[in-house]
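seq:
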Amino acid sequence: MPVTDSAIEKIKAMIVSGELRPGSRLPKEADLAERLGLSRNSLREAVKALSLIRVLDVRQGDGTYVTSLEPNLLLDALGFVVDFHQDDSVLEFLEVRRILEPAAAAMAARVMPDEDIAALGEVLESLSDDASLQELIDNDLEFHHRIAVGSGNTVLCSFVDGLSGPTARARIWRGLTEEGAVDRTRQQHRAILDAIAHRRPDVAHAWATVHVAGVEQWLRDTLGAAGSSLG
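struct:
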């Protein structure tokens, strides 16, 4: 195992064991390096890597701390990764959305508070008939985020948020090129909301699957057609 990877594993072990807890300050660099049997340079590289994925927080002039380790913080890097994937690799992220978002919708139908369901309806009502494509995308992101929050599972919500935003590029592309895509999106959003409001998890799951699968299938068809034309 490379020295830096070994250093990362040793710091992670201290966190997992509870020796370093969320919000804890790491010992001084020289002391920690000696204790873990590392060079100070290897320790610095490990701290840098763990700070990039939001496990550690390096505060200039103050020291290095373990972050809150909240799921939404640690999964922020997911959106960063998705942004670097182009074209057909986005399909894999949409496949994951097709698994997770219906589950979130079904969970929301069971546990989402009535007032939050009413607020979800207001999100849909706030979109005017002549809304721009960007306004539609923003509304779409807010709609999916509120359902994910309504699932009551913070880890699931973090995953949905991480995947929903970066794959918006495919939804924008579809909205610009496929006739009727905007109206279909609004109708499906309404169907998902109605299923959640009527506490029907199976129906919410089904409509959310149809909704995400529509974007996925459109992208598959589009990329397939592009590949054929190049051939």
